Amino acid sequence: MASQLVHLPEVERLSPTCIRILGGNPGKFALQGTNTYLLGTGPSRLLIDTGEGKPSWIAAVKRTLQEEKASIAGAIITHWHHDHQGGIGHLVEAYPDTKIYKNQPEPGQLDIVDGQEFRVEGASLTAWHTPGHTVDHMVLVLNEEDAMFTGDNVLGHGTAVFEDLRTYLDSLESMKRLFRGRAYPGHGPVLPDGPAKIAEYIQHRRRREDQVVQNLRSEKADGSREAGWTTMELVRVIYEDVPESLHPAAAGGLVQILQKLHKEGKVSLDDGDKWRLADRSAL
Asked: Domain named Metallo-beta-lactamase: which ranges (predicted)?
């Protein structure tokens, strides 16, 4: 995975109003590291996300703000995961007057509601609740660019994980209609056509769902069918081109698909982990 990732500078100006500062936490799931974004053109700026609390991140924030002759007015957290809010302590220590905004806030934080607006010189943001990756997940539309900060619902490389597939797909459909420009993801490089990438995400999930249904309809390698398929049997077929070491992670996403189909009455679950089509003739 790491060898496939493009290099991203620790600090990079992405547009006249947007600077990306990496969280200093590269890894298997964080890719090049958590993207945090400094927004605005005047002496007072907004920050999106805070990384996981690495000293290199707050040092880069301080250095960038000094160069910009600016300070932080508020930090907007896209969701509760540690690699997006872990740097709040360092931020508040360095800039005690910073207001921290988060959906489902923790003590000392301020709430974010659907449609809420944030403004500084050169940047106006509209926040939208888009659960799926997490229940509190927010995205932000940068009105000056008709662009979106997608948090972890859409990444700059690969696909995202989610808590509930049906909710996640609903949020992707909503996100696609909210903007027309590029996407600034929570991890990875900028996506030049955000709505097109979201459409790819939706199509990818639909293809995976179709694969699950087709396999449940077919016989297994041993010729059996009625006994049903275990999750790992499905994983080994659907993800046959993926290293076996990654199969447990793939199983998590596959279970989400199966649970969605189960809620829709399309599959049944027997004996704890035996999946089969509920009505073979209807699919």
From this structure: 33-187
Give the whole-angstrom CA distance, residue 258 versus residue 140: 31
Range(s) of the chain covered by CATH 3.60.15.10: 2-202
Cross-strand bridge partners of residue 44: 71
Residues of the chain with pLDDT under 70: 1-3, 220-226, 279-283
Q: Which of 83, 193, 222, 271 is catalytic?
A: 83
CA dihedral 254→256→258→259, nearest 10 degrees, is 160
Could you give the C-alpha distances from 1 to 158, 201, 205, 244, 277, in angstroms and in order? Answer: 10, 19, 21, 15, 35
CA 197 – CA 139 distance, rounded (Å): 15
Task: Give start-end residues of each CATH 1.10.10.10 domain in the chain.
Answer: 218-282
The CATH class that applies to domain 218-282 reads mainly alpha
Classify domain 2-202 by CATH architecture: 4-Layer Sandwich (3.60)
Known catalytic membership, residue 83: yes
Q: What is the DSSP pairing of strand 18-22 with strand 183-185?
A: unpaired
Placement of tokens 């000056």 in the chain: 144
Look up residue 108 and give its amino acid.
Answer: G
- The whole-model pTM stands at 0.90
